[in-house]
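user: Here is a favour to ask of a fellow structure person. I have my own habits and do not want them to colour yours. Could you put it straight underneath, so I can go through it closely?

assistant:
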Amino acid sequence: MATPFNVPHLGDGVDSGEVTAVLVNEGDTIAVDDPVVELETGKATVEVPSEVAGKIVGINVKAGDTVTPGQTLLSVESDDNAGTPEKEGEKEAPEKQDDQGDQQQDADAETAAAGSAPEGEEKPATPQAPAPSPATASPSPAPESGSRVPVAAAPSVRKFARELGIPLSNVAGSGPSGRISVEDVKAHAKQQLSGAGAATAGAGGGVSAPPLPDFTQWGEVERQKLNNVRKATAQHMAMSWSLIPHVTQQEKADITDMESLRKRYAKQAEKAGGKLTLTAMLLKVVAAALKVYPQFNASADLAQGERVVKKYIHIGVAVDTEKGLMVPVVRDVDRKSIIQLAVELNGIAEKARSGKIAADDIQGGTFTLSNLGGIGGSYFTPIINYPEVAILGVGRGAYEPVFINEQFEPRLLLPLSLSYDHRMIDGADGARFIRWIADAIKEPLLMAM
């Protein structure tokens, strides 16, 4: 009897992927952990390893297909699967155990609603079958606010809902027995945004885009299909801009001495296998600033009336690639030397440009740095990378006359643009934060003090 191998959980907030390559053929014999397909999931390309072993008797997808978690990729036949009906019945036991686990998760969710949820990292979600289409689904009504009725949802769905600040008790589940999926949470969030937008329609909030005109009436056009990276970027940026009230603070930093240091120690970084860039040095400055101003290293949980301050510093760095913008994350920046950061940044940026970035490499950031200086320009308004609360944009440095000791001197000045979530951060703190960064760039000793 053949065992189906389904698309596993692809990461929090990732609900689909495009098959870029099928790595096996029908008739092949595979072992557990052998890669079977290559998927592009928004901003990451990953090889999906098999969770079953045996002979492949059917392949259900091909390159170019879009798949979702729970969808069958292929069927595998093995000696273990050729058992009697009694053995097949025994395989149902883990599912029952999973149900019990879900009930425990429900109990934890109720505890969290009372403000006493135990801390700890949730386990990866068990792959679920795709939710029925809206035309055939019969969503169970959401419990009334304050209801103690347990809700069924995988840990990954609960985590996704918490990041959006949406209580699961308010979400209607479209799965079996009212089970809630990521799509249900997204639909609820869209409904909330539409409702909020209706109240502010006069200010342009929540207004749907009107249909496009027929551009061919004025001349020739070309339609280009958006790749998955561009689609994911468009969706995430729209959500970030819609949910977060942005304020952008701007400042100039004197990097004359820092540039001299960079040139002096460039060969040392090359010997270590990296390239000492301004971005690598700025990572260390920003990490020190986040220690002084931890409210910038946080997320807003308005549903619980809390600010989530992270005790770790993982900084995302925007990388320009052929497919579009990617933001790989450099972890524990505060614990690494500038040379170590230079080596790691060089490696992770190359992975992003080659399209081999992993899903884990673009998750877990607490702050983002976007340096456009290599291209040009000065100030701009970077969009905050939700669920973070701030992002630092960097333009191209230029020499300007600065009045020092009663005379003008040429100094290399760097334009900085700090966007922050005005719900969590006041303008005064925004000004202090960017000023601290500018002072630390000019006087690096400040980081040690």
Q: What stands out?
A: Residues 81-149, 196-205 have pLDDT under 50 and may be disordered. The first strand starts at residue 2 and ends at 6. DSSP finds eleven helices and 19 strands in the chain.
